[in-house]
UniProtKB/TrEMBL annotation:
N-acetyltransferase domain location: 55-260
Origin species: Urochloa decumbens
Lineage of producing organism: Eukaryota, Viridiplantae, Streptophyta, Embryophyta, Tracheophyta
Protein name in the entry: N-acetyltransferase domain-containing protein
């Protein structure tokens, strides 16, 4: 998946990361797309299905949902720092920064949306106790869990990331956007949810008038690269090794999608 937006100090090199304890895994059949509108709290959202359980794909609706999405990101990207900093402290900082981007308080971000995949809290996920406890929110009296998330950012660049070159720099009419913080709960990866989230973001990008969509992915993240290639992204450039060493992270690839060639 894509890497997290830089909000904290660089992570220690992978060799220095503490080994994570194995978590409960959920045996989930492959999620399948269903082309119909939802009538649940996620009304109007695209749906995925598994065994009759609907996975709603939509822009976030409530702040509680946004915080649940942030907790999923902390669980995905900052597991190495949870013991030293604390999950809630990390979530608070990420939540504040994401709110600032969405509200337009951060320079350069013209428009930002958080897109989530959510499911009702039920026997579907009861084996994933940690996921449910961290990423749960309540909407209209129903408990739901965020199981996948990403941000669509209409902006010229992302902090500490390579800058896309298309369609050129024109701050009066900017049609460039980036995906960031793309993540799926580890219990539900390789089920098609990541592809569905990216596809949902492409549809929103088209509504915004985006012509050039970018995503950064670590050079050693083969699964993420396969996902974006399947979604139509192609190679544009890569981060110099010295820059990655300076930032204390794996090198990034910059991938580009020509939205003008995407089918309507």
């Amino acid at each position: 998946m894509a890497t997290a937006s830089r909000l904290f100090a660089p992570a220690p090199p992978p060799a220095a990361w503490p080994r994570c304890l194995p978590s409960n895994r959920v045996a989930v059949p492959r999620l399948r797309c269903r082309a119909s509108a939802a009538t649940s709290p996620a009304g109007g959202a695209a749906l995925l299905e598994r065994d009759g359980a609907a996975v709603a794909l939509r822009e976030f609706v409530t702040l509680d949902e946004l915080r649940a999405a942030v907790r999923l990101r902390v669980r995905t990207f900052y597991e190495y720092a949870v013991e030293s900093v604390g999950a809630e402290a990390l979530a608070d900082r990420e939540f504040e920064a994401l709110q600032d981007r969405i509200s337009g308080k951060m320079i350069n971000f013209q428009r930002v949306s958080c897109i989530n995949g959510t499911v009702p809290l039920s026997s579907f996920l009861m084996a994933a106790e940690e996921l449910c406890s961290m990423c749960k929110f309540v909407e209209d009296g129903e408990e739901r869990v965020v199981i996948g998330s990403l941000d669509l950012n209409q902006c010229l660049w992302l902090p500490d990331e390579m800058t896309g070159m298309r369609p050129g720099v024109n701050e009066d009419s900017q049609t460039r956007a980036y995906l960031s913080n793309v993540c799926v709960a580890k219990e539900l990866q390789n089920k098609g949810l990541g592809y569905a989230l990216v596809d949902k973001s492409k549809k929103l990008a088209r509504e915004w008038g985006i012509t050039d969509l970018y995503v950064h992915v670590a050079i050693d993240n083969i699964a993420g690269q396969k996902l974006y290639k399947k979604s139509g992204f192609v190679y544009e450039g890569e981060e110099p090794a010295w820059r990655a060493r300076f930032l204390g992270r794996p090198r990034r690839l910059l991938l580009w999608l020509d939205m003008n060639k995407e089918p309507l």
